[in-house]
Design a protein that fits this description.
The protein is an alpha/beta fold. It is built from 13 helices and 17 strands.
Length: 415
């Protein structure tokens, strides 16, 4: 069985509000072996709602409407779904009485339009809502000769999530033929999306029983999402694990995560395994590398600290970069990146030191040293690895790429 989730509300089509409820509902449906094939956001116009409902009924077994069950004129989910199904709305006297009691308990006169919340689609079960005034509805019906399970749920998270978990899941579980879903997320560093697909496609296209999706994440990371469904959890897991193993062999050291971990998490694992510590001297990244490392709980066990050395005088005073080196080679150079890594390592008495210097833009570039040019260095006191890269994009993108490159260099140094 497959599902479609429809989030309703014109506010969801603005930059100020987004749907988060569907993430929880998707996870719960997956537990039942139900794939969510479609997610739709619709405004509050009735013709649009009716049209979206009819499309959903034509292509999904389970359809969940979120929102639009309030008392105002733009709360039209009940009316739109009833029209799309060709069914009547009937006012439920028990819901009406409960609404009057709700307002009476608060010594407030109930507005007349609140009675709209007592309108129930013919044949639907009422889902109680102890956290609000809008009850939900669960309907098992036919659409164009096909069986459909339809839910109308309130929009606020504090209302919809417990209603779905406590009332809908039980009903769905009794009706859904269970299948089991297994997933894996593989992550690759510093390889472009098209190159990653060129190498991965000959492998995953031979495994048609596993759905493979390639996603280019924020600069410097490509993700391979593997997903399959099978009659047993063991069979599903074996399918994705088998494909994952082949992809791991193909990408070798470029693949830094096989279970969805972030690059900063993986770097933390390696540092702890080696009993190593880290310090950083950052120029163009402005502390982004340190922020990413310290976003991981427990990073105080391996990250000692460092410095943001934007000004050249701080490169000297905080990381011991010789002024003559800066004058001769420029602040953005292989030599200065090396000196930053070696200097901050010694200053902080760390196992590893990292130095980053570059031109993030949008200004400051020259023909010899264009915007996007970044030098990265990692030193362990014996050898220093240096990578020169020119990254595309705006200032934020260049800075993220640079921090990603530095993290990947640390990982490889510790492997």
């Amino acid at each position: 069985m497959n599902a479609e989730i429809i989030a309703i509300g014109s506010e969801l089509l603005t930059p100020f509000r987004q749907d988060t409820n569907s993430l929880h509902l998707t996870a719960k449906l997956n537990e039942l072996g139900v794939e969510v094939d479609f997610k739709t956001v619709v405004g509050d116009r009735k013709p649009d709602l009716v049209g979206a409902a009819r499309i959903a009924f034509s292509r999904a077994h389970i359809i969940i409407f979120m929102g639009g069950l309030g008392p105002t004129e733009d709360d039209l989910t009940r009316e739109a779904v009833a029209e799309a199904l060709g069914l009547e709305l009937k006012r439920d006297p028990e819901i009406g009485a409960a609404l009057f009691a709700f307002f009476a308990s608060r010594k407030v006169k109930m507005p007349e339009n609140n009675l709209r919340q007592a309108d129930v689609i013919a044949g639907a079960e009422v889902l109680k809502n102890p956290r609000g005034t809008a009850p939900g509805q669960f309907l098992e019906t036919q659409y164009e000769g096909r069986q459909r399970l339809i839910m109308l749920l309130p929009g606020p998270p504090r209302e919809i999530l417990p209603m779905f978990d406590q009332q809908c899941m039980e009903r769905l579980n009794a009706r859904v033929l269970a299948h089991h879903i297994a997933t894996r997320v593989l992550k690759i560093a510093m390889i472009g999306e098209s190159d990653a697909d060129r190498r991965a496609a000959p492998i995953y296209t031979q495994h048609t029983d596993v759905q493979t999706t390639i996603l280019a994440s924020t600069g410097g990371e490509v993700q391979l999402h593997l997903r399959t469904q099978a009659p047993t959890q063991e069979e599903a897991q074996e399918r994705v694990d088998s494909l994952a193993s082949l992809l791991e062999d193909e990408f070798d050291e470029a693949m830094f995560s096989t279970r969805g971990e972030s690059l900063e998490q993986i770097v933390g694992y390696y540092l702890q395994m080696r009993g190593a510590t880290l310090a950083a001297a950052e120029s163009c990244t402005g502390g982004m590398l340190s922020e990413r490392i310290t976003s991981v709980a427990g990073s105080s066990r391996y990250f000692l600290g460092g410095a943001v050395v934007y000004d050249n005088s701080l490169k000297t005073s905080m990381a011991d970069v010789p002024p003559l080196m800066i004058a001769e080679h420029g602040a953005v150079s292989r030599e200065v990146a090396t000196a930053l890594a070696e200097g901050i390592r010694k200053r902080c008495k760390a196992t590893l030191g990292v130095g980053i210097t570059g031109i993030a833009g949008p200004g400051g570039g020259t023909e010899q040293k264009p915007v996007g040019l970044v030098f990265h260095a990692v030193s362990d006191g014996t050898t220093t690895d240096v990578v020169e890269r020119r990254f595309p994009g705006d200032r934020d993108r260049v800075r993220h790429w640079a921090s990603q490159q530095a993290l990947d260099m640390i990982r490889r140094k510790l492997m």
